[in-house]
C-alpha cells in the first residue's frame, strides 16, 4: 500500500537581507493532495546552514520522514534566473529524511517548490503532524 503526500516549501527574502546575500527564510507546509488549500505549516524553521566545497549551502527538511522517494514537482517562478536543478538546488536523502538544499543566488531568492513524497505504507501509519514536527525540530539542532 502506497500513499502520497505533498509539501510546499516557500522561501521569501526579507528586503534588508537581499543585499547581504543571506539565505531567504523558508516555510515548509504539509498537505494531503496537490490542490489541498489546508496547508499545515511547520511551526519552526526547518532549515540550517552547511559549507560544501567552500560555499554556504542551506538545507531544509521537507518533512517526509520514512518516504521511499521524494520528487520536486514544480518550481515557481518556473523561469527563475538563479535556481537551476542539480546546480543551485537539489533534493538529498540523509538517513530516513529528505532535504532540499539551495546555494549560490538561489539561496537568497524568493522561490516556491512543490514537492511530492511517496511512502510505502498506508496513510494511517504516518505519524501525526505534531510528531513529524517534533522529530524534525530535534534533528535541526
Topology:
Blueprint: E1 3-11, H1 15-18, E2 26-31, E3 40-41, E4 47-52, E5 55-61, E6 69-76, E7 89-94, E8 97-103, E9 111-119, H2 129-139
Antiparallel strand pairs: 1-2, 1-9, 2-3, 4-5, 5-8, 6-9, 7-8
Poorly predicted regions: none
Strand order of the largest sheet: 3-2-1-9-6
**How many strand units?**
9
Q: Number of DSSP helices?
A: 2
Q: How would you classify the helix and strand content by structural class?
A: mainly beta
The major pleated sheet works out as: 5 strands, antiparallel
Mean pLDDT: 90
Oligomer: single chain
Beta content:
35-45%
Helix % is 10-25%
Kindly give the count of domains.
1
Q: Spell the H/E element sequence.
A: EHEEEEEEEEH
Give the overall shape.
Answer: globular
Q: Between the first and last Cα atoms, what is the distance in angstroms? A: 33 Å
Cα Rg = 15 Å
Write a brief caption for the model.
InterPro entries: DUF7808. It is built from two helices and nine strands, in the order βαββββββββα.
Amino acid at each position: 500500500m502506497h500513499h502520497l503526500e505533498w509539501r510546499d516549501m516557500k522561501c521569501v527574502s526579507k528586503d534588508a537581507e537581499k543585499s547581504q546575500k543571506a539565505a531567504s527564510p523558508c516555510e515548509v507546509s504539509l498537505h494531503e493532495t496537490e490542490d489541498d488549500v489546508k496547508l499545515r505549516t511547520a511551526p519552526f524553521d526547518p532549515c540550517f546552514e552547511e559549507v560544501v566545497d567552500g560555499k554556504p549551502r542551506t538545507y531544509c527538511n521537507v518533512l517526509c520522514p520514512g518516504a521511499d522517494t521524494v520528487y520536486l514537482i514544480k518550481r515557481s517562478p518556473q523561469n527563475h534566473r538563479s535556481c537551476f536543478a542539480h546546480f543551485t538546488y537539489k533534493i538529498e536523502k540523509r538517513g530516513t529524511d529528505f532535504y532540499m538544499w539551495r546555494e549560490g543566488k538561489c539561496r537568497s531568492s524568493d522561490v516556491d517548490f512543490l514537492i511530492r513524497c511517496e511512502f510505502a505504507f498506508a496513510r494511517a501509519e504516518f505519524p501525526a503532524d505534531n510528531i513529524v514536527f517534533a522529530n524534525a525540530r530535534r534533528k535541526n539542532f
